[in-house]
Amino acid sequence: MSDARDGSLLAQPLRPPSAGRAAALVGLFLLGALVGLAGALVQGGWFPGGLLLALAGAAGLFLGGAHATAGRGGAVAPAAGWIVAVVLLTTTRPEGDFLFGAGGGSYLFLLGGMALAVICATVGAGRQPRGGGARLGK
């Protein structure tokens, strides 16, 4: 049995994700884009309740993805989908139309959602070494 201090227990080679995990991450990416689209529509309709509802839905998806996949990638995938969808919705169209107004609620939705994505990806369930429940140093 190797000692934990030499790093052999923690230094495991990276493996490509399984097909199921890759499918779950793609699904979470698409779900993040859908939540971003829905949040963009709700946040402006019922200010401030719609803004709080949209941000709570995004945070729930980010944390739920982290717990469902037992890793931070489960929070990063929907966060990336959310950011892509919201940034694409902020661009103006040739007709001059855009979905977000210039109010403070739109900026709170954009910046608050990005901050939630970073927080949930940082706090989300990280991978732990496999093995017993004993402390690694003992």
From TrEMBL:
Entry keyword set: Membrane, Transmembrane, Transmembrane helix
Pfam families: DUF6113 (PF19608)
Entry's transmembrane regions: 21-40, 46-66, 73-92, 98-125
Top-level taxon in the UniProt lineage: Bacteria
Protein's name in the database: Integral membrane protein
Annotated source species: Streptomyces capoamus
